[in-house]
Here is the input.
Amino acid sequence: MKFLVYPKGLLQNLSEDLIAFFRSADGSVTTVDPVIEENLISFSCEKIDFASLSLSCPVEGFGIPLVSTGFLENRTEPYVLLVELARGKISSLRNMRQEWSEDIHDIPEEFHRLHNEAYQLFTQSIFHKDDPEQASELGSKSLVLAFQASEYLCQFYVNKQLVSNVRSSTEAKHLGTVLNSPISGQGQLQIIKENFSRLCLPIKWNEIEETQGERNWDHLDSIIETCRQNSIRCYSGPLFDLSENNFPVWLKSWQHDFENFISIVCDYVESVVGRYASEINVWNIARSFLSNDFIQLSQRDHLTIVAHALNTARQIQKNLLLGVSIIHPWGVSEGCSSLELSPLHAVDMLQRTGVGLSWVSLEIPMGFQGRGYVPYDLMELSRLIDEWDEVELPLDIVLAFPSSDQPVSGQSESLSSHGCWKKDCSEKTQQEFMEYFIPMLIQKENVMSVTWEGLTDSSEMKFPHSGLLREDEAEKPALSTFSRFRSTYGPGH
Here is the structure.
């Protein structure tokens, strides 16, 4: 499938950050490698007859968000990219408005003005199909106005819903953070107690069992005892992460002995959960289980490992709340390789095994390049959360956004040099990011909690500069915003 791109060079500088995938009518996702040549971008997708294209594309005032076309026929004649993106955004906006029609009334005139102008410009772009450069200019203007209308509608809807939810005293949402470095003292303990309703404790197998059969619990024992003494409600981070940096190195030698590999994983899960089940009731069992970073097995084999691990934990104590982490909720994977199973399909398969899955964690970091992290706007985020309603499980949404774009040596993620959200990275932008996205998440019925990935900036954190405390433990502005949401919508509000 081919698309004409004007102005020339619009996507040239995004080759490293560009995310592109096709979504078929059945919901399956196929990631693709784009080939950019002057004003033409093409995708190899011979097996696809009819699909919508989603890609990260610059939109004035909105950074480089994910934008989708409508469903298109795979043909040899090129489409005009910005015209099709405008068509797709206007169509999605219309559908969203219809879905929310029962919940919102008296939409302000400003929305109608923006929507009508976007549609008029899109119509004009269709009439200029023989002049793709002019059509692209009109499509670009239409797309910007459609984004503005989308943002206006989403914020109007969210504000209405939040007021309604507070009045009806709906179930509280947990707002927590990940303890990504050791608790440094009483001052940090006080910050945790005052600003978060729960704390996620990373449990790193490669640190617990550096040598096979020799487990060291001292560090984890100390953290859990500290949380118990200070009445801090905590839950576990993933017990195992199928990526190279988180599994013990020695485990890789067992990857060709599948039965023993499963046995080793289950023995570890049984040891951890059995040791701490009296202190921790909520357990995240696995992360990165749809990737092939560490063990070269099929995704169905990965699911078999996770199912056995879940079943092992369930046998220890029946009332435990067991969950898993999804690192690519749209199904976009690192290296533009397609997933054999979509994340939704994978979770559905886990449920069908009868292991008693209780919740799902969706990781949604923004501002980081590579690894398939998708930059959303409010409408796309809302669509994603609604799509996950199909699994009928509560969701924990994990957010991250950097307060700086300076590179940090030795850390796992690179920072986007293009500012994939609306503004460049800064502490103020991090705070605005929270104020923009968290209200949309809080009002979703299927969202049980919002977790900020990383309390304190450190060399060990998964996403650089995303902590709510600086390395010297000074508070960033975003902490007060997160605390305000916790006070308003968290337990005991």
Remarks:
- The CA atoms of residues 243 and 292 lie 8 Å apart.
- Residues 2-167 form one domain.
